[in-house]
Each structure stands twice: as structure tokens, then as C-alpha cells.
Amino acid sequence: QVQLVESGGGSVQAGGSLRLSCVVSGYTYTYSRYCMGWFRQAPEKEREGVAGIDSVGSASYADSVKGRFTISRDNAKNTLYLQMNSLKPEDSAMYYCAADTRTPGYYSDYLDHKNFYYWGQGTQVTVSS
Fold first, then answer.
1. Which residues contact 100 (CB under 8 A, 6 or more apart)?
2. Quick check: 28 pLDDT over 70?
3. Would you say 90 and 20 are in contact if contact means Cβ atoms under 8 Å apart?
């Protein structure tokens, strides 16, 4: 069973930075071939895509985080990262890592939670003003 474990969340003041990590294990499919994504969900809001990255490193970002967040992956460590800079209070949410063996046909689909089968438990990010 594929397992995803996120870490790196916490509380930070506006303008600060955090780096989230997601370690993938238990896979029967080479990790490097998974399409990976970061999603977030704030209380009483729908889950939204933050960033996604495919097996060749092509990435897609939500407009709200472009220029501030960077998604990356280290295939040797089976780990996905999300570097978050210039954080804003509206970035506060539970952040989830997700994976799927299939790669969507369009970059915009990397941000659609319906395209991901495996999910982590989440890590909380709180940004204070």
C-alpha cells in the first residue's frame, strides 16, 4: 500500500517561509514515474490544488501561489517538496501531498484533486498577520 507522509508545517508570520516535505513509501510503481501534487484545504472551504509536478519535472501552479511557492522532487529520496515563501494569512490551511501513477493530459489537471488516488494525512500551516 502506498503511503505518503507530510512534514514541515507549522506557524509562521506573514512574509515568512516554510518548506513542506512528503515521503512516499510502499509503492509498487517506481516513485519517479508518479505524478505528484500539493493540495490545501482551509476550514469550510473546498480542497484546492496548489502545485503539481510530473515525472519529468514539469510543474503547474495555482495563480495564487505563482512566484511564491516552488514544487520539487528528489527521486533518489522518494520525496516531494513545497518551498513556500512570502507566506500570507490566506495560505493558512491543511496541506496534503498526493500521488498517482497516471499523468493528466493538461498541466491544469495537475491541480485537480480528482486526478490523484493516493493521499497523505496532511500537515497544518498557519500564517499570522
1. 34, 35, 115, 116, 117, 118
2. no
3. no
